[in-house]
Each structure stands twice: as C-alpha cells, then as structure tokens.
Specification:
The protein is 41% helix and 22% strand. Strands 1, 2, 3, 4, 5, 6, 7 and 8 form an eight-stranded mixed sheet that branches.
Length: 233
C-alpha cells in the first residue's frame, strides 16, 4: 500500500469533500466520490514524474480541486441533468473536467490543454475511471476553434485567464444560447471586471451579475466568484 492509499488519507479526503459540497447541494454519491479518490491517487502518483499540481494533501485536494470544480453546479442556470456539450479550457490534471464528468453523466466534456503530458494523463484517467463522456485534446483554445469548428453549450475556464483575453480566445467556441463561465475569486480586481464587461459587450455577449460561492475548508472559507457570459439564442 502506498502512502496516499492509507485508510486515514481516504477518510480525510471523503470528509473534506462532503463538508465542502453538501452545503451547496452538489455532494457526490459514494460511487462518484470513489472515482474522485481514484483520480486523486493517480494524480499523486503521476506527480512524482511530472508536475500536475502543488496541492497533494487529501483534505486540501478534496476542497481546492474536487469540491471547487463541482461548485459550478451551484450556479443558477447550470443544469447537470441536461445533455450539454462542454469544453474545459486549460484542464491541467483534469479540473474541472474530471469531477464534472463523474457527477454529470449527461454532459459530454472535452478537456483541452496545451501540455501534452497533462492531456495524456487526463485521457488515461478517463479510460481507467470508465468516463465515456470525457475526451482530452492537446490544443490551445484558439487553435481548437480553428481546427474543429466545434461549438459548445458551455465553455469553462478555471484559473487560466483574465476575463478580457479569455473571452477573445474562447468566444468562437460557444454556440447561440450557450455560455462562457470563468471560475474566479472574490479577490478579482475591479479593473478586470470592467474590462471583461466591456469586452463582453463588444462581442455581443450578456455578462450576468457575479455569483459568489463559499466552500468550507479547514483553512477557512474558499471564496469562489463565477462570471457567466451568455450568447443570445
């Protein structure tokens, strides 16, 4: 048994994940939590060979990676039961793509990253976890739009770009009636918000009022702010 697979680590992960997600109404069931733990264990092992994440302790990862990814589902208008085509830009080790694919089987998720090793990790993890609704692609956002012409119901960006340049890069990927969602924090500056709103208007996107969500953690609340930009249908 590896260090990370010890029962006490398993319990720490499960307890922290449930404490953070239950108040939001997005808690995974036992089978879904088990798959997230399996992904976490694979991530920690792969992290020995190449950098995937700096967050490797079970409780921290449960909140700052998995619960944080799932907090999107607490945003009004996000329907986990509807069949949506979703793209995760800059997925890294698979966040938020993997947790969302686990708890939203109706969604078809494409996880994109510009680093080949990370894309291979996500693809191998998806296969190992039986996530048939998740595929990984090696590309940048602007390249992906040009190469495929794909359009999505939901485009998500978690901690990978400021709003203004992010909108410019990914807006070709969102279909009419779809939305672009940025995972930000409440520390986001007023300048970024203003520039993002101006860019959204220029691109004929409707930026909704921010949605603030707090996640419970041992270190105190994790403050998440969602910025949603919708393309009129």
């Amino acid at each position: 048994m590896s260090e990370i697979e010890k029962p006490e680590n398993r319990s720490l992960f499960r307890d922290a994940l449930m404490a953070a997600t239950a108040p939001l109404g997005v808690a995974p069931d036992s089978g879904q939590e088990e798959r997230m733990w399996a992904h976490f264990a694979r991530m920690v092992e792969a992290n020995r060979q190449f950098n995937l994440t700096r967050i490797t302790t079970p409780a921290d990862a449960a909140v700052k990676h998995y619960a944080d990814s799932l907090s999107l589902l607490a945003v009004p208008g996000i329907d986990r039961g509807r069949a949506l085509n979703v793209v995760d830009m800059g997925t890294g080790a698979g966040f938020p793509a993997v947790p969302l694919a686990i708890v939203c089987p109706a969604w078809r998720i494409t996880a994109i990253d510009g680093t080949g090793k990370k894309v291979r990790f996500v693809a191998e993890a998806a296969e190992a976890l039986g996530l048939r609704n998740l595929v990984a692609r090696h590309a940048r956002g602007d390249e992906f739009a040009r190469m495929t012409g794909a359009r999505f119901d939901l485009v998500v960006l978690r901690a990978v770009a400021k709003i203004n340049p992010g909108l410019v890069e990914v807006q070709p990927l969102v279909k009419r009636g779809g939305a672009i969602v940025f995972y930000k924090t409440t520390a986001m500056g007023a300048d970024e918000a203003a520039a993002g709103r101006k860019q959204a208007a220029f691109l004929k996107l409707n930026m909704r009022d921010p949605v603030d969500i707090d996640l419970v953690s041992a270190d105190g609340p994790l403050h998440r702010r969602f910025i949603v930009c919708e393309r009129p249908g």
